Amino acid sequence: MVQPTGSLPCLMKAWKMHEHELYCWLLRQTGNQADTDDLIQETFLRAIRQQRKFCSIVNTRAWLFEVARHLVIDKSRRQRPYQPLHDGVCIQDNAPETVDSLAECLPRILDKMTEDDRTILTLCDLEGMKQADFADRSGLTLAATKSRLLRARERLHKKLSSDCQVRLDEYGRVCCFTPR
Q1: Confidence of residue 159 (pLDDT cuts 50, 70, 90)
Q2: Sequence-ordered list of residues with C-beta below 8 angstroms from that of 178, at least 6 positions apart, any chain
Q3: Which of 32, 73, 74, 135 could form a disulfide with 145 if both were Cys (CB 3.0 to 4.6 A apart)?
Q4: Closest CA to 165 of 150, 146, 180, 155
Q5: 3-state secondary structure at position 23
Q6: Which pLDDT score, from 0 to 100, does residue 118 have?
């Protein structure tokens, strides 16, 4: 239980100032009162857990809305609707072959890429090296490493699409391709 310390009046003042606006925003996000009530309560509880730290927050309104936004995102992730497959959708029996064939195509594509792209993709994506470790090893900042890796992935995607005719489904997964 929260002790009635000096942080409580600060919290109550901020809450009274922003509760109505926050409630209206949450109601627009969720579309129903029950979820809005749950999320507004959880936002308030998280503010209470901050105790004295809450008073040191410069923009309490922004903090409250940020917490509420994250709660809305978490709730939507937990409640993703289940979508059954339609009768017209058929599952390809050759999916394992496709992956095996793609595994044969990938080294060929990597060989065609620049040394920098090949190195960062191999170490970070294929061997699982952390981006921070790659940055230290290469003398780059973490931000530069992330940018290089993103650009290398984009170039790899283009080459896979053109040279192996890879197509991705709506979730970004390989659905089919034709090796050349």
Answers
A1: confident
A2: 164, 165
A3: 135
A4: 180
A5: helix
A6: 93
C-alpha triplet 34, 31, 11: angle, nearest 5°:
60
- 55 lies in which domain range? 7-78
- When the pLDDT of each residue in the chain is averaged and rounded to a whole number, the result is 82
Half-sphere exposure of 99 (CA within 13 A, CB side): 5
74 and 101 fall within a common domain: no
**5 — pLDDT class (breaks 50, 70, 90):** very low
> 142-163 vs 131-138: helix axis angle to the nearest 10?
110
Domain membership flag for residue 50:
yes
Both 172 and 100 in a single domain?
Answer: yes
> Could you say which of 34, 52, 78 is where a domain stops?
78
Give the three-state DSSP class for 170. coil
Are the CB atoms for 133 and 146 separated by under 8 Å?
Answer: no
Higher pLDDT, 33 or 171: 33
Position 117: which residue type? D
pLDDT in tens, 160-173: 777 776 666 666 66
Residues 112 and 172 in one domain: yes
Model confidence at 11, in pLDDT bands (50, 70, 90)? confident
In terms of Cα–Cα distance, which of 75, 3, 7 is closest to 41? 75
